Amino acid sequence: MIRRLPAWARSPMAVITLAVTAWFSLAFLVLPNLQLLAEVFLADGGLSTRAWGRLLGSERAMSSLRNSVLLALTLSVTVNVVGVFVVLATRYFALRGRRILWLGYATSLIYGGIVMVAGYDFVYGSSGILTRLLTTVLPFVPEDWFVGYPAVVFVMTFASTGNHLLFLNASMARIDQQTVESARQMGASQWTVLRRVVLPTLLPTIFAVTVLTFLGGLGALAVPEVLGGRDFQTIAPMMLTFANTPSSRDLAAALAIILALFTIAMLLILNRLERGGTYFSVAKVSTQLTPQKIGNPVANAVMHVIAYALLVVYVLPPALIVLFSFTDARSISTGTLRADSFTLENYATALLEPTARWPFVVSISYSAVAALVVILGLLFVVRLVTRFPRSRMSTIVEYVLHIPWVMPGTMMVLGLLLLFSTPQGVVGGRVLSGTVGILAVAYVVGKIPFTFRLLKAAFLGINRNVEEAASLLGASQLYTFRRVILPLVLPTAAAITALNFNSMLDDYDTAVFLAHPFYQPLGIFIRNATSGETNADASALVFVYSVILMVIATITLWLIYGGGAARILRLLSPRRARRRSGDALPLDPADQA
Amino acid sequence: MITFENVTVRFGDFTALPDLSLHVEEGEFFTLLGPSGCGKSTALRTLAGFNDPASGRLLVDGRDVTALPSDRRGIGMVFQNYALFPSMSVRENIAFGLKVAKRPKDEVHERVHEIAEQVALTPAQLDKGVAELSGGQQQRVAIARALVLRPRILLLDEPLSNLDAKLRNQLRVQLKELQQQFGITSIYVTHDQDEAMSMSDRIAVLDHGRIEQVGTPREVYERSATEFVCTFIGSVHRLGEQAVSRLSQLPGSPVAEGLRSYVRVERLTLRERHRPNDGRLVVDGVVDRADYHGYFTQYAVRLGDRSVSVRVPWSATESAFAAGDEVAIGVAPEDVLQYERSGPEAGA
To answer: What is the complex's ipTM, to 2 decimals?
Structure first.
């Protein structure tokens, strides 16, 4: 009888892990989405199309849909133009100061979300430094010139090229120098080599990052909310508006479902692209691509001018934020600098003043708790799934945990908000909306797919015989997990935890729906500071927080992708460092979706 | 000592081992030999407890171990890729099983050093990470880790396949010496016939999960029981019907007509024409190519429209041939291996 049970059912650890996973998935992944569907398709105890009728009749909602699609399509072009250019300028062509250019462009990796919106607002907004300069020189320019569709496209274009810097750059590095040399040797011009050899090789990656860009544009919240103005609101800000009005929640849910359908379609395309594979080098021993000198002096000059102009656009907002974070309130409000303007008082206030540092403490706490919970939980779940890879149970668990990957973040958040606005039996008959815990739950939910995919890759990378060897030597499953498996996946787990922690620190999109009024994280505080009604002291705090967040992001990326962790390990324990080999996380566009 | 009793192993609809029966004697170095996918590793992993048989029993000293967990079978195993724990030092790897068994610290220390010495690992190497060692050293760690628990049975799953040819030859000898020194019953899996022949007391040749022949290396090579064993081990020539007919007519010849007939390449002789045939069938040919390999020379000899490969050992007395030389190839009737068109040996 006992042999008829599936193998996993004979392991107490597997049964407990599965029970907890099943409860969590039902409560926080499945039911919230069912609740959304119910909001849209059920009314008065039966099926209803009322929500769709109201949606079609709402000018604002329909306009937001059109705007979102327009934004996504525009960004698919602009981000690719800028993104491909910056990768060519830093990786393919031998431009002067390529390292500086790369560092400047890479600010988009450490400076995003609401922090970046605040930075651009400080430069280009109605009371921004550049706006003051512009209105002084050209008095006919209105103060609110940087608003609406162009402003949103401008900011999001520079915000979204991070994917190009990561993925396209990595792809470019894998092009075989000898393919370029052989094309040149056969008489192809530099332009022909780029057009016929290099860019076609990069095409699968360009398609993949285009899908990510499209999705980013479609679901954008912070940028259109702050810079879109009255006339350019998109789906996500509109969902937020509708969600805050109890009578319009069905409209918010209907918009979320439309967003989800777009997302699913895009992910199917991404999946197809992934299956199509890539074609970098067929050589057994490939040669690293060396930067190409531009032969034509005019083309060379034009490339340099554009590259450095873009550098200014990239660097100006974060550089000014860093600079003004060390100045007094008067300098910040007037945008002027004097020798006696510089002070460390903003930092002292932000770090020492209990009320000032509260949003930072809240963000750190939420990020730390969520990052630890998601990694600890998934260590057990992924272990279960990889230990019984052929079982139907593993397939179901894997599909269910990918729900937040398929559904847009705002939809998951809205589902949680709507479901837990009333007492729910699945959480002991409690109302969770408005509590401190619901935001942490949303953070954990949002990080599950990314964590799961990378952790699973780490587990699958372990030689299966290692576990069998441990079992032959008498080790129990738990002992093998603790002593053999865990040390092998720990570097990956630590890297994922750092990335998750970092990405949640400046979150705005989730917090704006779910944050407790007394426990508002940094994202909300920064957003409020961009509303134009805040004083210079609040702006100073925003600058300090922005700098701290940039420093944390830089350290995280250096540790994980820049070889920093390995260097530190070598310093602390040379022998242990020698034992480890490349623990860097793989770069895969699909993980970012 | 070890008995596979009608063991069948299935993976879904695929039957990897259909009804395997086999007996391995105590202290024997027994090899499972066969091409990739023939089921030899499946048999080994089933004995180790990593595959559940669909039917049949596994007996060790007459005791049924089929349902026992792998660590209770008294088996040590060396994997193809060694399966060392990469996060641990050499010492920690070897001591792993002793620590799991909660042996006293002193005993762990003593046994680790003892086994390390026996497999020629130095004390300095014990504190290194396993990634810092060469392939041969890693293999010794894997053997030490398996032997330190003093198992009665040692399973070796192609442990030499990741090493270069020279090291492989060297470690073959060391492995065999260790096995004899410990007197441990060993089952060795390989697809390399040289390895099997040089190390084993007995060999089981497998094909598609079925045993084709069990015997000593000499029996398997010289009296191959089936056409598969004959063609799988060593290099053979299939003789044409006309050659078989002429061989059968030689005085006292055991060769029969109507059977598939083979001769091993090293049993062919190559001489100048017009020399006495010594009771052999002699066929005239012309040397197309001569490939010098040091201790033997491989000749491609053209016989009409066919080319036959002949391997001639180095000799101080016999003269070497060059391309274009007219030669005679000789086949002795007693060297002919014959088989029914399908089925076992009909008579060699």
So the answer is: 0.78
Same fold, A2-42+349-592 and A62-324: yes
Q: Sorting pLDDT into bands at 50, 70 and 90, what band is A536? A: low
pLDDT in tens, A260-276: 998 888 888 877 776 66
A10 touches chain B (CB under 8 A): no
**A2-42+349-592: CATH topology:** MetI-like fold (1.10.3720)
Angle in degrees, CA B20, B23, B26, rounded to 5: 150
Residues 444-503 of A with CB under 8 A from B: 463, 465-466, 468-475, 479, 483-484, 487-488
* A310: nearest Cα among A131, A30, A506, A87: A87
| Nearest chain B Cα distance for residue A190, angstroms | 44
Q: What is the identity of the amino acid at A65?
A: L
What sign does the dihedral B277-B280-B284-B290 (CA atoms) show?
A: negative
Domain ranges of chain A: 2-42+349-592, 62-324
Residue A280, Cα to own-chain centre: how many angstroms?
A: 26
- Of the candidates A281, A305, A277, A307, which has an alpha carbon nearest to the alpha carbon of residue A198? A281
Quick one: pLDDT band at residue A535, thresholds 50, 70, 90? Answer: low
Q: Does residue B309 register a pLDDT over 50?
A: yes
Task: Spell out which residues of chain B touch residue A576, defining contact as CB-CB under 8 Å.
Answer: 129
| Identity of the residue numbered B236 | V
Token code pair at residue B271: 């001489």
What is the mean pLDDT of the segment spanning A300-311? 96
Q: Does A5 touch chain B (CB under 8 A)?
A: no
The pLDDT score that the predictor gives to residue A577 is: 59
What confidence category does residue B344 fall into, taking pLDDT thresholds of 50, 70 and 90? very low
pLDDT over threshold 50, residue B140: yes
Contacts 24+ apart (CB under 8 A), A456-463: A456/A382, A456/A385, A456/A386, A457/A492, A457/A586, A458/A488, A458/A489, A458/A492, A458/A493, A459/A382, A459/A383, A459/A386, A459/A485, A459/A489, A460/A386, A462/A488, A462/A489, A463/B81, A463/B83
| Angle, CA B82 vertex, CA B78 and CA B85 arms, to 5° | 115
Q: What is the pLDDT of residues B32-71, one digit of tens each?
A: 999 998 999 999 999 999 888 999 999 999 999 998 888 8
Mutation site for B-interface testing, chosen from A465, A477, A482, A486 by largest number of B Cβ within 10 Å: A465
pLDDT at A314 over 90: yes
Q: What band does A51 get if pLDDT is binned at 50, 70 and 90? A: confident
All structural domains of chain B, each given as residue ranges with its CATH number in brackets, are 2-232 (3.40.50.300), 236-339 (2.40.50.140)
Q: How far is B233 from chain A (nearest CA, A)?
A: 29
**Chain B partners within 8 Å of A466 (Cβ):** 83-86
- Find, in chain B, the residue whose alpha carbon is nearest to that of A468: B50
| Identity of the amino acid at B312 | V
Class of domain A62-324: mainly alpha
